[in-house]
Amino acid sequence: MKHFIFLLFGCLLTAIGVTILGQLQIVTGGTAGLALSSSYIFGLPFYLLFFLINIPFYVFSVLRMGWNFTLSTILSVSMLSTMTYFSYLLPEMTLTPFFGGVLGSVLIGFGLSTLFLNGSSLGGANILALYLQKKFDWDPGKVNFLFDFVVVLSGFYYLGLLNGMYSVMSIAIYSIIISYFKNQIKERNHQKGKQLVLKTS
């Protein structure tokens, strides 16, 4: 139950952050960024695209991270998709792009860190970042930033230069927050891995 509450809290923070950025047309990274970008281009709802884009990454997750992590990730993706579906009920926020970009990014950074610390993710590059940390001890914040930077660059054409720069600022902020928790993320997931081995032995 405690694990579920942490996942719910992490998804709630991320959902509010994504909603703020979406209202300001600032793109975030990863599969959430791809879904947000695609929603602008194709006029389809974010929650549907976000869920569909993540499906191929689940295969990699099962093979490399195990069923517990994958099922936890599917749960987190489903919760975030549901939360963003109801985001239309929220009032339009009158925030400046800079302040809104900072606020949304900080919320996403703490939301993702909460999920990572509890053996979950939001799919896509999140899965790869945690796998590379587990396998090669790479900083998940920096790995996320590299992938997210590519996603944001692809959105410069329709976002415009100013919103594109705010988007780069956004991924930098939440990547720094994730990097701050990298040692705790590594230790917590290492402990979960040991507990799983003990249960199955």
How is this structure best summarized?
The protein has helices at residues 2-23, 30-42, 46-65, 67-85, 97-117, 125-136, 140-154, 156-159, 161-180, 182-200.
Question: Can you walk through the features of this model?
Answer:
It is a multi-pass membrane protein. This is YitT family protein. The protein has 201 residues and is mainly α. It has one domain (2-89, 97-200). Helix content is 82%, strand content 0%. The protein is built from 10 helices and no strands. It has helices at 2-23, 30-42, 46-65, 67-85, 97-117, 125-136, 140-154, 156-159, 161-180, 182-200. Helix 3 (46-65) packs antiparallel against helix 4 (67-85). The longest helix has 22 residues, at 2-23.
Measure the end-to-end span.
Answer: 24 Å
Helix content: over 70%
Alpha-carbon Rg, integer: 16 Å
Strand count, sense and closure of the main sheet? Answer: none
Low-confidence stretches: 196-201
Strand fraction: under 5%
Spell out the helices and strands N to C: HHHHHHHHHH
* Class based on secondary structure composition and strand pairing: mainly alpha
Shape: globular
| SS field, number of helical segments | 10
What count of domains describes the coordinates?
1
Average pLDDT confidence is: 84
Quantity of strands, as a count = 0
